Amino acid sequence: MTDARGNARPNRDGSARHTPGTPCWVSLMARGLAATEQFYGALFGWEFRPGPRPLGPYVRAVLDGHAVAGIGVLPPDRRLPVAWTPYFASDDVDLTAESVRSCGGTVGVGPLDADDAGRLALASDPSGAVFGIWQAADGAVAGVTGRPGTPAWNELTTFETTNVAKFYETVFGYDEDPVVSADLDYVTLRLDGRPVTGVHGVGNALPRDRGPYWTTYFTVADTDDAVDQVLHLGGQVLGGPWDTEHGRVATVADPEGARFALVRKAG
């Protein structure tokens, strides 16, 4: 597990921008914005600033002056899950959306303009997992990564990796690095040789009432302390903490049920 958002290339003006296919943003659609801000502000030290409003009320979570995530509000008349969604960079969101459709995925929202910040679309892969596509107006890379409170990794939990991984490889140009194991169906997707995301096939162990889903991992200074704080703030622990080759990890959920993971990286 590395900081996948490190994939960058220069703009013409010398500033950095995301390589297409790089995870570049995470966004949460919640029901109660004020309570959600209070939970994540206390857990990660985030402050909040008004953001673009293509989908209704929306705020940017800010850490040390840099935007690290977004939180929007689900329309009350729509029965959508409260969930974190990763966005993948694109130089042309309309073209990427067409690729999603031609590869068997679905584009549910957009492409549409997010004020002057850029252009986005929300899509789902052939198994139904939801993800976003983001074309930033200036292509800028997030200014703070690898610190507590910032996204570290995104991982897809799905039925099987073979067909789903091929979908993302075709849409975003990834290379595949499968784990050779009779007991584990896992593929790391790479971009320019660098790991950017993972796909974990769990077969019938996938909850039938949920379907395939993405999980965002956030860096923390101490996983056990962060788990205690999640519980104190009204969230729940879904798994762990446990030690892995990438660090100490726990899967948790906020008070509205949005799942995410905490990781204190090894080394």
UniProtKB/TrEMBL annotation:
Residue ranges constituting the VOC domain according to the UniProt record: 22-136, 150-265
Region of interest: Disordered: 1-21
Highest taxon of source: Bacteria
Alphabetized InterPro entries for the sequence: Anthracycline_SecMetBiosynth, Glyas_Bleomycin-R_OHBP_Dase, Glyoxalase_6, VOC_core
UniProt-listed CDD domains: SgaA_N_like
UniProt cross-references to Pfam families, sorted A to Z: Glyoxalase_6
Protein name: VOC domain-containing protein
